[in-house]
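Late entry, PMV complex.
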Amino acid sequence: MKEDVEDKITVSAPGKIILSGEHAVVYGKPAILAAINRRLFVSVRQSSKNEIITSESPKLAEFARDFVLKTFGKPREKLRIEISSEISIGCGMGSSAALAVATTAGLFKYLNKPFDKEKINEIAYEIEKKQHGNPSGGDNTISTYGGFLWFRKETEFLKLFKQLQFDLTKFVLINTGRPKETTGEMVLGVRKLYDKNRLKTEKILNEIEKTTKQLLVAFNQMDEKLIRITIRENERLLEKLEVISNFAKKIIRGIEKLGGAAKICGAGGKKKGSGIILAFHPQKDVLFELAKKKNLPAFEVKLGEEGVRIEKS
Ligand code: PMV
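Prediction complete; structure with ligand written out below:
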Protein backbone atom coordinates (compact mmCIF):
# COMPACT_ATOMS: atom_id res chain seq x y z
CA MET A 1 0.00 0.00 0.00
CA LYS A 2 1.25 3.49 -0.88
CA GLU A 3 1.42 5.33 2.46
CA ASP A 4 4.41 7.52 1.71
CA VAL A 5 3.73 11.27 1.70
CA GLU A 6 5.95 11.36 -1.38
CA ASP A 7 3.17 9.51 -3.19
CA LYS A 8 0.85 12.42 -2.61
CA ILE A 9 -0.64 13.96 -5.73
CA THR A 10 -1.62 17.63 -5.57
CA VAL A 11 -3.69 19.55 -8.08
CA SER A 12 -5.23 23.01 -7.92
CA ALA A 13 -8.12 24.81 -9.61
CA PRO A 14 -8.89 28.55 -9.63
CA GLY A 15 -11.91 30.44 -8.37
CA LYS A 16 -13.76 32.72 -10.74
CA ILE A 17 -15.83 35.80 -11.12
CA ILE A 18 -18.63 36.37 -13.60
CA LEU A 19 -18.04 39.64 -15.44
CA SER A 20 -21.47 39.51 -17.05
CA GLY A 21 -24.39 37.14 -17.59
CA GLU A 22 -24.96 35.45 -14.22
CA HIS A 23 -28.47 33.98 -13.88
CA ALA A 24 -29.20 34.69 -17.56
CA VAL A 25 -26.63 31.98 -18.37
CA VAL A 26 -28.95 29.41 -16.76
CA TYR A 27 -31.48 30.32 -19.51
CA GLY A 28 -29.07 29.83 -22.40
CA LYS A 29 -27.78 33.40 -22.55
CA PRO A 30 -24.02 34.04 -22.82
CA ALA A 31 -21.75 34.89 -19.92
CA ILE A 32 -18.23 36.28 -19.66
CA LEU A 33 -16.23 34.59 -16.94
CA ALA A 34 -12.71 35.09 -15.63
CA ALA A 35 -10.50 32.75 -13.60
CA ILE A 36 -8.83 34.47 -10.65
CA ASN A 37 -5.52 34.04 -8.84
CA ARG A 38 -7.11 32.41 -5.80
CA ARG A 39 -6.95 28.65 -5.91
CA LEU A 40 -8.21 25.54 -4.18
CA PHE A 41 -5.74 22.69 -3.64
CA VAL A 42 -6.57 18.99 -3.42
CA SER A 43 -4.04 16.35 -2.39
CA VAL A 44 -4.79 12.65 -2.78
CA ARG A 45 -2.98 9.61 -1.48
CA GLN A 46 -3.80 6.03 -0.71
CA SER A 47 -4.71 5.24 2.90
CA SER A 48 -6.01 2.44 5.10
CA LYS A 49 -9.28 4.30 5.56
CA ASN A 50 -11.31 6.96 3.76
CA GLU A 51 -10.53 10.44 5.09
CA ILE A 52 -11.34 13.95 3.92
CA ILE A 53 -9.43 16.72 5.65
CA THR A 54 -11.06 20.04 4.89
CA SER A 55 -12.65 23.16 6.26
CA GLU A 56 -14.59 23.43 2.96
CA SER A 57 -17.67 21.36 2.15
CA PRO A 58 -16.77 17.79 3.23
CA LYS A 59 -20.07 16.45 1.88
CA LEU A 60 -19.42 17.80 -1.61
CA ALA A 61 -15.85 16.46 -1.55
CA GLU A 62 -17.16 13.08 -0.43
CA PHE A 63 -19.73 13.07 -3.21
CA ALA A 64 -17.08 14.09 -5.74
CA ARG A 65 -14.73 11.32 -4.56
CA ASP A 66 -17.42 8.62 -4.70
CA PHE A 67 -18.72 9.85 -8.06
CA VAL A 68 -15.30 9.74 -9.75
CA LEU A 69 -14.29 6.40 -8.19
CA LYS A 70 -17.60 4.87 -9.30
CA THR A 71 -17.18 6.29 -12.81
CA PHE A 72 -13.84 4.47 -13.07
CA GLY A 73 -15.09 1.25 -11.44
CA LYS A 74 -12.98 1.71 -8.27
CA PRO A 75 -15.63 2.35 -5.59
CA ARG A 76 -13.66 0.59 -2.84
CA GLU A 77 -10.44 2.60 -3.13
CA LYS A 78 -9.38 4.01 0.30
CA LEU A 79 -8.03 7.55 0.08
CA ARG A 80 -6.83 10.41 2.21
CA ILE A 81 -7.94 13.62 0.54
CA GLU A 82 -6.72 16.98 1.87
CA ILE A 83 -8.31 20.20 0.69
CA SER A 84 -7.12 23.74 1.33
CA SER A 85 -8.40 26.89 -0.28
CA GLU A 86 -7.70 30.58 -0.86
CA ILE A 87 -11.23 31.13 -2.21
CA SER A 88 -13.90 32.54 0.14
CA ILE A 89 -16.81 30.12 0.39
CA GLY A 90 -20.30 31.01 -0.81
CA CYS A 91 -19.50 34.56 -1.99
CA GLY A 92 -19.77 34.15 -5.75
CA MET A 93 -16.11 33.28 -6.30
CA GLY A 94 -16.70 29.74 -7.51
CA SER A 95 -15.39 27.83 -4.48
CA SER A 96 -17.68 24.84 -5.02
CA ALA A 97 -16.81 24.58 -8.72
CA ALA A 98 -13.09 24.74 -7.90
CA LEU A 99 -13.64 21.97 -5.35
CA ALA A 100 -15.48 19.81 -7.89
CA VAL A 101 -12.86 20.41 -10.59
CA ALA A 102 -9.79 19.94 -8.38
CA THR A 103 -11.14 16.82 -6.64
CA THR A 104 -12.02 15.27 -10.00
CA ALA A 105 -8.65 16.19 -11.50
CA GLY A 106 -6.76 14.90 -8.43
CA LEU A 107 -8.51 11.55 -8.72
CA PHE A 108 -7.86 11.39 -12.48
CA LYS A 109 -4.17 11.81 -11.74
CA TYR A 110 -4.25 9.34 -8.85
CA LEU A 111 -5.93 6.71 -11.04
CA ASN A 112 -3.43 7.34 -13.84
CA LYS A 113 -6.11 8.55 -16.23
CA PRO A 114 -5.12 11.03 -18.95
CA PHE A 115 -5.44 14.61 -17.70
CA ASP A 116 -8.26 15.24 -20.16
CA LYS A 117 -9.83 18.63 -19.36
CA GLU A 118 -12.98 17.92 -21.34
CA LYS A 119 -13.66 14.78 -19.31
CA ILE A 120 -12.69 16.47 -16.01
CA ASN A 121 -15.08 19.32 -16.80
CA GLU A 122 -17.91 16.93 -17.68
CA ILE A 123 -17.60 15.09 -14.37
CA ALA A 124 -17.22 18.33 -12.38
CA TYR A 125 -20.46 19.54 -13.97
CA GLU A 126 -22.28 16.43 -12.69
CA ILE A 127 -20.88 17.16 -9.21
CA GLU A 128 -22.00 20.81 -9.46
CA LYS A 129 -25.50 19.59 -10.29
CA LYS A 130 -25.52 17.75 -6.98
CA GLN A 131 -24.64 21.01 -5.22
CA HIS A 132 -26.85 23.51 -7.08
CA GLY A 133 -29.60 21.56 -8.82
CA ASN A 134 -29.60 23.41 -12.12
CA PRO A 135 -26.24 25.07 -12.77
CA SER A 136 -25.25 26.49 -16.14
CA GLY A 137 -21.89 24.71 -16.09
CA GLY A 138 -20.07 28.04 -16.49
CA ASP A 139 -18.33 27.91 -13.09
CA ASN A 140 -16.79 24.46 -13.58
CA THR A 141 -15.81 25.31 -17.18
CA ILE A 142 -13.88 28.46 -16.23
CA SER A 143 -12.23 26.66 -13.30
CA THR A 144 -11.14 23.87 -15.67
CA TYR A 145 -9.89 25.94 -18.61
CA GLY A 146 -8.95 29.22 -16.90
CA GLY A 147 -8.37 32.55 -18.68
CA PHE A 148 -11.42 34.48 -19.82
CA LEU A 149 -14.34 32.64 -21.37
CA TRP A 150 -17.36 33.46 -23.42
CA PHE A 151 -19.71 30.67 -22.32
CA ARG A 152 -23.16 29.59 -23.44
CA LYS A 153 -25.20 26.53 -22.51
CA GLU A 154 -27.20 25.64 -25.61
CA THR A 155 -28.73 22.50 -24.12
CA GLU A 156 -27.85 20.13 -21.29
CA PHE A 157 -25.44 18.23 -23.57
CA LEU A 158 -24.05 21.15 -25.62
CA LYS A 159 -22.14 23.90 -23.86
CA LEU A 160 -20.12 26.18 -26.10
CA PHE A 161 -17.26 28.35 -25.00
CA LYS A 162 -14.44 30.38 -26.46
CA GLN A 163 -11.28 31.66 -24.79
CA LEU A 164 -10.90 35.44 -24.83
CA GLN A 165 -7.94 37.72 -24.20
CA PHE A 166 -8.33 40.87 -22.15
CA ASP A 167 -6.10 43.05 -20.06
CA LEU A 168 -8.36 44.12 -17.22
CA THR A 169 -6.80 45.83 -14.24
CA LYS A 170 -9.17 48.51 -13.01
CA PHE A 171 -11.42 46.26 -10.96
CA VAL A 172 -11.65 45.90 -7.22
CA LEU A 173 -13.67 43.21 -5.47
CA ILE A 174 -15.68 44.27 -2.43
CA ASN A 175 -17.23 41.67 -0.16
CA THR A 176 -20.75 42.69 0.86
CA GLY A 177 -20.99 39.59 3.05
CA ARG A 178 -21.73 35.93 2.59
CA PRO A 179 -25.33 35.54 1.35
CA LYS A 180 -27.73 33.71 3.64
CA GLU A 181 -29.08 31.94 0.56
CA THR A 182 -27.30 29.22 -1.41
CA THR A 183 -26.67 29.55 -5.16
CA GLY A 184 -29.35 26.88 -5.70
CA GLU A 185 -31.90 28.96 -3.77
CA MET A 186 -31.04 32.10 -5.72
CA VAL A 187 -31.36 30.27 -9.05
CA LEU A 188 -34.70 28.89 -7.87
CA GLY A 189 -35.87 32.41 -6.94
CA VAL A 190 -35.29 33.59 -10.51
CA ARG A 191 -37.06 30.47 -11.81
CA LYS A 192 -40.12 31.37 -9.70
CA LEU A 193 -40.09 34.88 -11.13
CA TYR A 194 -39.83 33.37 -14.63
CA ASP A 195 -42.75 30.99 -14.03
CA LYS A 196 -44.88 33.76 -12.53
CA ASN A 197 -44.23 36.35 -15.21
CA ARG A 198 -42.55 34.73 -18.18
CA LEU A 199 -42.75 37.58 -20.69
CA LYS A 200 -41.41 40.19 -18.30
CA THR A 201 -38.59 37.94 -17.09
CA GLU A 202 -37.64 36.92 -20.62
CA LYS A 203 -37.38 40.59 -21.52
CA ILE A 204 -34.95 41.15 -18.63
CA LEU A 205 -32.88 38.11 -19.66
CA ASN A 206 -32.72 39.37 -23.26
CA GLU A 207 -31.59 42.77 -22.01
CA ILE A 208 -28.88 41.08 -19.94
CA GLU A 209 -27.70 39.28 -23.09
CA LYS A 210 -27.40 42.67 -24.82
CA THR A 211 -25.30 44.06 -21.96
CA THR A 212 -23.04 40.98 -22.04
CA LYS A 213 -22.39 41.52 -25.75
CA GLN A 214 -21.87 45.23 -25.16
CA LEU A 215 -19.37 44.49 -22.40
CA LEU A 216 -17.46 42.20 -24.75
CA VAL A 217 -17.08 45.11 -27.19
CA ALA A 218 -16.20 47.52 -24.37
CA PHE A 219 -13.46 45.19 -23.03
CA ASN A 220 -12.13 44.58 -26.49
CA GLN A 221 -11.73 48.29 -27.15
CA MET A 222 -10.86 49.07 -23.53
CA ASP A 223 -13.55 51.73 -23.70
CA GLU A 224 -13.78 52.76 -20.04
CA LYS A 225 -16.89 54.86 -20.52
CA LEU A 226 -18.73 51.98 -22.16
CA ILE A 227 -17.49 49.55 -19.49
CA ARG A 228 -18.92 51.81 -16.80
CA ILE A 229 -22.27 52.31 -18.56
CA THR A 230 -22.63 48.60 -19.28
CA ILE A 231 -21.84 47.45 -15.76
CA ARG A 232 -24.42 49.90 -14.43
CA GLU A 233 -27.04 48.60 -16.90
CA ASN A 234 -26.19 45.02 -16.04
CA GLU A 235 -26.57 45.73 -12.32
CA ARG A 236 -29.99 47.38 -12.83
CA LEU A 237 -31.20 44.30 -14.73
CA LEU A 238 -29.94 41.96 -12.01
CA GLU A 239 -31.84 44.10 -9.51
CA LYS A 240 -34.98 43.52 -11.57
CA LEU A 241 -34.33 39.78 -11.16
CA GLU A 242 -34.44 40.46 -7.39
CA VAL A 243 -31.10 38.88 -6.56
CA ILE A 244 -29.51 41.83 -4.73
CA SER A 245 -30.12 42.96 -1.16
CA ASN A 246 -30.93 46.53 -0.19
CA PHE A 247 -27.67 46.58 1.75
CA ALA A 248 -25.59 45.75 -1.35
CA LYS A 249 -27.65 48.10 -3.54
CA LYS A 250 -26.75 51.00 -1.23
CA ILE A 251 -23.04 50.24 -1.56
CA ILE A 252 -23.38 50.03 -5.35
CA ARG A 253 -25.27 53.36 -5.53
CA GLY A 254 -22.45 54.89 -3.45
CA ILE A 255 -19.87 53.67 -5.97
CA GLU A 256 -21.93 55.06 -8.85
CA LYS A 257 -22.16 58.48 -7.13
CA LEU A 258 -18.37 58.54 -7.01
CA GLY A 259 -18.24 58.02 -10.77
CA GLY A 260 -17.75 54.25 -10.79
CA ALA A 261 -19.87 51.19 -11.47
CA ALA A 262 -20.41 47.89 -9.69
CA LYS A 263 -22.39 44.68 -9.93
CA ILE A 264 -22.65 41.36 -8.14
CA CYS A 265 -20.55 38.68 -9.78
CA GLY A 266 -22.28 35.45 -8.89
CA ALA A 267 -25.67 34.32 -7.65
CA GLY A 268 -26.16 37.31 -5.31
CA GLY A 269 -28.20 37.35 -2.10
CA LYS A 270 -31.45 39.07 -1.08
CA LYS A 271 -31.37 39.24 2.71
CA LYS A 272 -28.19 41.13 3.61
CA GLY A 273 -24.92 40.10 1.99
CA SER A 274 -24.93 39.68 -1.78
CA GLY A 275 -21.43 38.22 -1.92
CA ILE A 276 -18.58 39.76 -3.84
CA ILE A 277 -19.28 42.79 -6.00
CA LEU A 278 -17.15 43.69 -8.96
CA ALA A 279 -16.39 47.39 -8.77
CA PHE A 280 -14.90 49.53 -11.51
CA HIS A 281 -13.41 53.00 -11.23
CA PRO A 282 -10.66 54.75 -13.21
CA GLN A 283 -9.02 55.46 -9.83
CA LYS A 284 -9.09 52.32 -7.74
CA ASP A 285 -8.22 54.19 -4.53
CA VAL A 286 -11.71 55.70 -4.53
CA LEU A 287 -13.14 52.17 -4.21
CA PHE A 288 -10.76 51.17 -1.41
CA GLU A 289 -11.65 54.33 0.52
CA LEU A 290 -15.37 53.69 0.18
CA ALA A 291 -15.01 50.08 1.27
CA LYS A 292 -12.96 51.17 4.28
CA LYS A 293 -15.63 53.69 5.29
CA LYS A 294 -18.29 50.96 5.09
CA ASN A 295 -16.05 48.51 6.92
CA LEU A 296 -16.11 46.01 4.06
CA PRO A 297 -13.16 43.94 2.85
CA ALA A 298 -11.86 45.10 -0.54
CA PHE A 299 -9.12 43.48 -2.58
CA GLU A 300 -7.70 43.12 -6.04
CA VAL A 301 -7.41 39.88 -7.93
CA LYS A 302 -5.61 39.02 -11.12
CA LEU A 303 -8.05 38.01 -13.82
CA GLY A 304 -7.48 35.47 -16.57
CA GLU A 305 -5.41 33.01 -14.51
CA GLU A 306 -4.55 29.42 -15.39
CA GLY A 307 -7.19 26.69 -15.09
CA VAL A 308 -6.85 23.36 -13.31
CA ARG A 309 -3.24 22.21 -13.07
CA ILE A 310 -1.04 19.57 -11.51
CA GLU A 311 1.04 21.00 -8.66
CA LYS A 312 2.79 17.77 -7.69
CA SER A 313 2.58 14.24 -8.99
O1 PMV B 1 -22.40 32.51 -6.96
P1 PMV B 1 -21.83 31.45 -7.80
O2 PMV B 1 -20.35 31.47 -7.89
O3 PMV B 1 -22.31 30.08 -7.40
O4 PMV B 1 -22.31 31.69 -9.32
C1 PMV B 1 -23.57 31.28 -9.78
C2 PMV B 1 -23.84 31.77 -11.17
C3 PMV B 1 -25.29 31.59 -11.63
O5 PMV B 1 -25.35 32.12 -12.95
C4 PMV B 1 -26.25 32.36 -10.76
C5 PMV B 1 -25.70 30.12 -11.66
C6 PMV B 1 -25.03 29.29 -12.73
O6 PMV B 1 -25.16 28.07 -12.62
O7 PMV B 1 -24.45 29.80 -13.68
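Residues 19 and 128 are 20 Å apart (CA to CA). Will revisit in the morning.
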